């Protein structure tokens, strides 16, 4: 009988120590967290207003008959507002800014922007204020930078992609970037 307590005691002490260690570790991490951040500093001619960076455009409900009849649905205008434009560069060895170029990118459906969801036979088309049609990943023609605030106007249109139409909800994500020259 004298050997019984000796055989049970070491595992019991080890279990007790592990329980205390994990309880202390949990207490020490309570109230603590971590935030990872990243960013970029760039040399740019203009700033983009906060309201222009992320936009949600409701294309509303469109009857299939409209798309069959017209080949397109409604057109929704949207804009990108540029502010604090400065033509001089921080590096005076480089030429001043004169032009900008916008590139829209997203899921491609030929030369149109593809959509996700139950709806089929449709895609999105983006045109600038001069009527230039955006192709996913390809820059639109150069525009001139103005010293004052600038509003770049575009139109988003639901169009037929010449496939069988099917009713349903759809969505799409389109990114844009501005390059300055």
UniProtKB/TrEMBL annotation:
This is Type 1 fimbrial protein. SUPFAM superfamilies: Bacterial adhesins (SSF49401). InterPro entries: Adhesion_dom_fimbrial (IPR000259), Adhesion_dom_fimbrial_sf (IPR036937), Adhesion_dom_sf (IPR008966), Bact_Fimbrial_Adh_Pro (IPR050263). Residues 1-25 form the signal peptide. It holds the Pfam family Fimbrial. Keywords: Fimbrium, Signal. The lineage of its organism: Bacteria, Pseudomonadati, Pseudomonadota, Gammaproteobacteria, Enterobacterales. Residues 36-180 form the Fimbrial-type adhesion domain. It comes from Serratia inhibens. Belongs to the fimbrial protein family. GO terms for biological process: cell adhesion involved in single-species biofilm formation. One of its GO terms (cellular component) is pilus. It is found in: Fimbrium.
